[in-house]
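Page 42, continued from yesterday. The earlier attempt failed because a stray header line got pasted into the input along with the sequence. Redoing it now with the clean sequence only.
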Amino acid sequence: MASDRFKQFIIALVGIAAISAVAASFYLIRKKAGFPVWHMVNCNAGGQQADCHVLKDQETIILVDAGTEITAKEYLLPFLAKKSIKSIDHFFISHPHTDHYEGLQALIDANIKIDHIYFNRPPVGVSDFAYIPEHFEALLAKAAALGAEVRNIQRGDRFEFPTTTMMVLEAKKEKQRGGVNDYSIIMRWQAGGYTSLFTGDLNWPLGRQLVGDPLYKADFYKVPHHGVTGIAPDAFSDMVDPALAMVPAPKVLWNHPRGEQFKTWATKRYEEKGMMTCINGFNGHVSLSFENTSVTVKPAIDGFMCRATRLQVKAKEMVNLDSKDSLGVKITPISNFLLDD
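This time it went through. C-alpha cells are written below.
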C-alpha cells in the first residue's frame, strides 16, 4: 500500500515537472520570437504636439499615427532606423489632423514601404485649420500609387495579426459636434494577455456619449487629445480605469493651463491607485512589453509618474462588439487581409 502511494507520488511529481517544462518552453519560445511591444515614440521632443506609436507583433510592424511631416523626419524616422524598420505592414491614421497623418509624407520620402493604410473619412463639408480634405486625399493617393492598399474603415472591423488583434470600437461617419477630432478611430489592441485603448483625439462631446459603456475599459490607455483642453471628460477616463496612461505631449502642454484637467485626474489616480502616467515630454520614448502575466515598462528617462518597472497587472475581462445587443454590430472582417508579411 505504501509502495503504491509512493508510485503515485512519483507519477504526480513527473507530471508536474512535465507541465512546468512545457510552460517554460512556451515562455522561452515566445521570448525568443518577441512579446508584443507598444513604442510611444517621442515625436514631441521639439515642443510640438504629435502622435507616433509603433506596435510590434513578431515581425509585423503596425504604426498608429505618424506625427507631422517635420516631427516624423526629426524623430520617427530616426527611431525606425534605430530599430532597423524599413517597412510598415499596417498604418492606422486615427483622424485626418496634420499632427497625426502628415508624417506619411516623410515616410514616403524616406522610401519606407507601407502595405496597408487605414483611415476614417469625415463627411463632405467637414474641415478645419488642421484638416484640408484635398491635402489629405492627395497624400493618400500618393501612397496608393506607390502600392499601399488604402481603406476607409468602420466600427466593427477586426484585424488579426500573428499573435494580437486590433478591433475598431468606434469610427463615426455622421457629423459630430466635436469636429474632426470626434471622427477619431477608437481601437482596442489585444496583445500579450492585455488590452490597450487607442483614442486618437477623442473630444468632449463624443467622449461624454461613450461614458458608461464597458466596451471601452482597458488595461492601458493612450490618452486622447494629448491630454489637453477638449479632451474626453474625466468620467470617460474613470470608465477606462487603466493601470497606466500614455500621453503623447511635450512638457509645455502638460504644464500649460490647457493640460490642467487631465493632469489633475492623473495625479489623483497616481496618489489613490498608483496608476502610472508616462509622458513623452518628461520620459522620452516609452515602450510597453506585454508578457501575458506582466508588462515591462521602459521609459528612456525615469521620472515624474513613470519609471522602468515590471507591472503585475490583472487583465480586465473584455466586452466584445459582437456580444453587445445595444450596439447591434456584427464584426466585419477585412477581406484579403495579409496575416503574414
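Notes: The mean pLDDT is 88.
Reminder to self: strip header lines before submitting.
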